[in-house]
Design a protein that fits this description.
Elements lengths: L9 H16 L2 H12 L5 H5 L6 H13 L3 E6 L2 E6 L2 H10 L5 H26 L11 E7 L3 H9 L1 H7 L4 E3 L7 E6 L3 E12 L3 E8 L3 H4 L3 E11 L2 E9 L13 H14 L6 H9 L1
Antiparallel strand pairs: 1-2, 3-9, 4-5, 5-6, 6-7, 7-8, 8-9
Amino acid sequence: MCSPRLTCDYLVTYTQAVDAIFRALADPTRRSLLDELFRQDGQTLGALEQGLPMTRFGVMKHLKVLEQAGLITTKRRGREKLHFLNPVPIRLVHDRWVSKYAEPWAAGLSDLKTRLEETTMSSTAETSGKRPWTAGPEEKVFEIYIKTSPERLWEALTDEETRRRYNFGVAVLSDWQVGSSYELSHPQGGTIAAGEILEADPPHRLVQSFNALWSEEIKAEGTSRVTWEIEPVGDSCRLTVTHDQLSESANGELYGGWPMILSGLKTLLETGETLTTPGSLRYAQAG
């Protein structure tokens, strides 16, 4: 039996998911909530309602719509319920309509717009004393639903060749025993990340320390932690990736690639195909 959020038909499920995303984004209040979580991720309901001219119940309704669309995910911390921005569904929409030919142009224009706005905002912050619009990076949570079994999903996370196909051509090498080391390597760049297996409960939970090595600047970021959690939902799985123990000023390169990686993983397991975005095409280039 399928979850109410999923169907047994891949195309129907995909269309319904996209509809839910656009409905959620159509409301300015919900967009404001996403903006606030982008500014500071992992906020409580109480913190989020402070910036909105409405009742606590009204904010809860908007958060529920965003959560149903997959645009936010929540985690319990003791008695508190924290809300995290989840960009993966937006990445899936991007992958549907932005081709491998258009993406470099779209990315370039988006980057230009962002840099111009950041310059303006930094200037405004210097004169007004207001904080620039930046996310709190200590913990990032990403969630995606994939029509597959827990065992097949676990294999996709730990198998060297499968990992290459959705992870920028990067293979993962380990025996997956607690206390063992692992390496992420690329044929054209050597070892780009490494760490230790902290927990392993196949096919449900995997916890790894994470040391990025692809540049001197990134090496200086030190050790963070990545947790993979697999939960069966009907004939599908909910995969939650938590990248935490980041520094307050963590470089966005450390966690910015997760939406594309998870989007590529979903596409591979559900269709057998690889994405035609530049990042995913590095697999073909590596071969």
